[in-house]
TrEMBL record:
Gene3D superfamilies: ABC transporter involved in vitamin B12 uptake, BtuC (1.10.3470.10). It is found in: Cell membrane. Its main location: membrane. The lineage of its organism: Bacteria, Pseudomonadati, Pseudomonadota, Alphaproteobacteria, Hyphomicrobiales. Belongs to the binding-protein-dependent transport system permease family. FecCD subfamily. This is Iron ABC transporter. CDD domains: TM_ABC_iron-siderophores_like. It comes from Aureimonas altamirensis. One of its GO terms (molecular function) is transmembrane transporter activity. It is a multi-pass membrane protein.
Length: 660
């Protein structure tokens, strides 16, 4: 990654500055807790009857040590992954490593706590991290390891792992707040075990890197050159990736997911002058340690009685860093597809068959289900009694499915990007961010109208940002997708802060984030269906634009299309549709991605027919997801958004593994 000369600052000055800031805050906090003599006594002969000495010895000091060691571990892990893959975006968070470890630990904590005993916590985290990283490589390497394709695959694995973890938590909501705090990266400690283990693992990993410093340096060149020098690039790359995965899993096992430190530390080490791998091997862990140490000290001052996850705060800082890396990254491929190219299977499904399928699905979701007596059809005389409970949920799911599918189909068609969708272009994340900001500003119970307006503004702001990016000539689809993901990750970080902050509305927020239709009302149904009808009615007015825009800006301009205005109107419609859908089912789902592809697969190739078909397919998917969530583990329920996300994951993985 080429760094402009205007931003090359001395590495030593930056390290000294960060060290001074972190040390000053730490010294201030330490002196506020105990006198210098009290600290000496607390560390050498702790008085167990003195709460201040106990707090200093077993909470404050271990937290500082863990922040330094965890930051150094993540910095080293990020360096190994980015260097071995020649990909400046590769780090434990973007490759799914941390999310896989977090999912494994969440599942074990909730349903198999015995696996965590006797030192098994690290092994569980390592197994999850290795599985998730392996899946990322299996998906992304199909495109010859294109840097952005690999990271995009990792972000998908991260989202799927997060959805699965949220689903497990939804089934067992005991200690909900504590789990959310840990998942978001909390450095709160109650002893030395974490610091000791992190130190041993870091020393071993650093020793391995020092022994392999020359082969790892050669790994930065072409594989053919490395082989000519007597090295085995495959083996060296495997050792480097394995070391990075072990470091990341070890950090997650003790403090949860800390986002983007592994990305920021190597990037900053290069920006600040560490050009050779030998220098980066020292600079990246040092910068990672100092950044996390400083962020944790700032978080400690801002907590004010509530436990703010340091990992979430690090994500808020790390998002701009990833944007900077995106601006400097050279891409090795593209996901742009020719608009008229045939896609996949040669299926031909007629409108009557599609309408009949949707009708049967809707009727079955209302009349067939699971009750105290097992699986049963709803008796005729019970229809009127059950209608107020089931019909609003079905109607909301139907309308939200149409809205998300229309938004996704419009975005894919207008951009010529088969991976465009509200989930990957930040529309859902923007809507969620709007609602979260509203929660932070408004202390009392939120009204539906307020939530709708906040979600619409957030979604529109996110897509407006994407509009500016899409109109840049040098901006290809993968970079647009990753920028959208940044918005979603930023929203997730804010959600973590709210969930961990003790807000009395946390239960509502948790249900909303996972896409629950449990509280759907007749008013919600009317609003959602009305918005769905309006979005469908608007399509004929922009039909010509949707056909011409995928051909490119120059072609569209020569055909008389006002490109900027056309994109603005399309994104406004997509933002409004996404906002309404996100309000009722939350930001988790793959409907906007899946439905347009399924429409093409069953024979609807022309843009307008494809969008209308995608709308009804999206409605069917979400109605089915709501029915599955309502019946699969009766009497408990799984949110429809989670079910849709988990069902959509295999579909996306299949799409990513396709050669075109």
């Amino acid at each position: 990654m080429k760094i402009p000369s205007t931003v090359r600052f001395p590495l030593a000055v930056s390290i000294i500055f960060l060290s001074a800031c972190a040390a000053a805050l730490t010294l201030y906090d330490a002196v506020s807790l105990l006198s210098p003599y009290g600290w000496w006594h607390a560390m050498t002969a702790t008085d167990l009857s003195d709460p201040h000495e106990l707090l200093a010895r077993y909470a404050f000091a271990p937290r500082v040590a863990v922040s330094i060691l965890a930051g150094a571990s993540l910095g080293l892990a990020g360096l190994l992954l980015s260097h071995s893959l020649s990909n400046p975006l590769a780090e434990p968070t973007t490759l799914g490593t941390s999310a896989g470890a977090g999912l494994a630990l969440t599942a074990s904590t909730l349903y198999a706590p015995s696996l965590l005993a006797m030192g098994g916590r690290g092994m569980v985290a390592l197994a999850g991290a290795a599985a998730a990283t392996g899946l990322t490589f299996a998906i992304g390497w199909r495109r010859r390891g294109s840097p952005v394709s690999l990271v995009l695959s990792g972000l998908v694995v991260t989202m799927v792992s997060g959805s699965a973890a949220a689903g497990l938590i939804a089934l067992d909501s005991d200690n909900l707040s504590a789990i959310f705090v840990w998942q978001s990266g909390s450095l709160v400690q109650s002893g030395d075990r974490a610091a000791q283990t992190l130190l041993v693992c870091l020393l071993v990993a650093f020793s391995v890197c020092r022994l392999l410093a020359r082969p790892l340096t050669i790994l930065g060149f072409e594989d053919a050159l490395a082989r000519s020098l007597g090295q085995s690039p495959g083996r060296i790359r495997f050792v480097a990736i394995l070391t990075g995965v072990v470091l990341a899993a070890n950090v997650v096992s003790f403090v949860g997911v800390i986002a983007f430190i592994g990305l920021a530390a190597p990037v900053f080490s290069r920006i600040l002058g560490a050009r050779s791998f030998h220098r980066q091997l020292v600079a990246a862990p040092a910068l990672g340690a100092l950044m996390l140490w400083l962020i944790d000290r700032v978080v400690f001052h801002l907590e004010s009685g509530s436990d703010i996850p340091t990992g979430a705060a690090a994500a808020l800082v790390g998002a701009p860093v990833l944007l900077f890396a995106l601006a400097s990254l050279r891409y090795g491929g593209t996901l742009r597809a020719k608009p008229a190219a045939p896609v996949g299977l040669a299926l031909k499904v007629r409108w009557p068959a599609l309408v009949a399928f949707i009708t049967l699905i809707t009727i079955a979701s209302f009349t067939f289900g699971r009750g105290p007596g097992g699986w049963e059809w709803l008796a005729w005389d019970m229809w009127q009694e059950m209608a107020p409970y089931r019909l609003p949920r079905i109607a909301v799911s139907f309308g939200a499915g149409i809205l998300l599918a229309v938004a996704g189909a419009m975005l894919q068609t207008s951009s010529g990007n088969p991976m465009a969708s509200p989930e990957f272009l930040g529309a859902s994340g923007g809507a969620a961010l709007g609602v979260l900001v509203l929660m932070l500003v408004v202390p009392y119970e939120l009204q539906n109208a307020m939530v709708n307006v906040a979600a619409a503004l957030g979604s529109l702001a996110a897509l407006t940002l994407l509009l500016g990016i899409m109109l840049r000539r040098d901006m290809i689809p993968e970079r647009v997708l990753l920028t959208g993901w940044l918005i979603a990750i930023f929203a997730s970080s804010v959600a973590s802060l709210v969930l961990a902050g003790g807000d009395t509305r946390v239960q509502w927020l948790q249900l909303w984030l996972t896409g629950s239709t449990y509280r759907a009302s007749a008013t919600d149904a009317i609003i959602t269906l009305s918005a769905a009808l309006l979005s469908l009615a608007a399509l004929p007015f922009i039909a010509r634009w949707l056909v011409i825009l995928p051909l490119g800006r120059s072609v569209a301009t020569s055909a008389g299309v006002p490109v900027t205005r056309a994109y603005a109107l399309i994104l406004t419609i997509a933002a409004g549709a996404t906002a309404v859908a996100t309000v009722v089912i939350g930001p988790l789902s793959f409907i906007g991605l899946m439905a347009p592809h399924f429409a093409r697969l069953i024979g609807f190739r022309r843009p307008m027919l494809q969008i209308y078909a995608a709308a009804f397919i999206g409605a069917s998917i979400l109605v089915i997801s709501d029915w599955i969530g309502r019946t699969v583990i009766y009497p408990w329920q799984v949110p429809a958004g989670l079910v849709a996300a988990l069902v959509g994951a295999p579909a996306f993985i299949w799409l990513m593994r396709r050669p075109t």
